[in-house]
Structures are given as C-alpha cells and as structure tokens.
C-alpha cells in the first residue's frame, strides 16, 4: 500500500460476516477493521478444550458451551470478537453466527493477546446485558480472573491463583481449577 492510498472503508459486522480474504486465517473485527488472530499455542488450545468440556458436562439444557464463539454487541456495528468459549441458554438455529445472549464468556490469555483481551475485549464484554460471568484464564501459569456481574453498573472480580474453585452462579456450576490445568501446566 502506498502512502497516498486511502484507508480501507470501515466494515460493519454484517459485511464482515460474509467477507472472505481467501485464506484460512481467522479474524476479529475491531473498529471496522479486520484484525488477523495469531494461531493459538498448544497450551491455549488445551485449556480452551478443557474449559469447554468442564463447563459443557455440568450445564443443563437448554444451556450449551460453544467454542470459537462469535460475540457481537448490538450497539457496536463495527466490532465482532471471537471468544474461546461462550455459554448461552438460548436456542441455536442453523447458520447462526454470533452467539445469542451469551451468559458466560471465556478467554484464554496468551502473552501476545493478554493486553487486548484484558483491555478492549473485557470492556466490550461487560457492556453486553446478557453476560453474567467473564473468565480470563492465563495460559502461562495457573491463574484465573473471574468477573461476576453484581448489577447493571457493577462487576466484581476474583483472582484465583493456583488451586481453588471457579463459580458460575448464572448457570449454577462450579469447576475446580485443577480440572482445567491438569496435564497442561
């Protein structure tokens, strides 16, 4: 791209969802611009899988855990994130992309993405009215940040380091940290 080329026109989420760059790269939409996601490290994938399994086996229908979950905010027409795991208790329809009314969002933090996930993404996730818990899991050490919505305006965060139990009151489940990190870290 030359110096005088105009910046690409910002994309809307609807345009982004049908856009294809012709590669297998995965993207998120940030402020109207597609941003490529780095391929996840093996520990990242193992933790995401463990969380999906541990949450999934404890949930009662109609609630489901969804991996690589599309998250959009109705008020932000230019932002679409892909969370590692989300939980919804809404019915899913064929072809549906964004997760409807996510209750829980889980992000695995890697050194390269931690700042963005903990900053911009967390701020957006907390604006979604349906979201009750947000779990940020460290992929380099046994460490979790579990955000819980108290009411419309306020959130409480618990740092869980080493052992301990993750509690998700919105769906009535608890998961021991050991179940997630066993064999990973």
TrEMBL record:
Coiled coil spans: none
GO molecular function, one term: endonuclease activity
Residues annotated as domain Putative restriction endonuclease: 13-160
Transcription regulation is among the record's keywords: no
Keywords: Endonuclease, Hydrolase, Nuclease
InterPro entries in UniProt: Nuclease_put_TT1808, Restrct_endonuc-II-like, Uma2
Superkingdom of this protein's organism: Bacteria
Hydrolase among keywords: yes
Name of the protein this chain belongs to: Uma2 family endonuclease
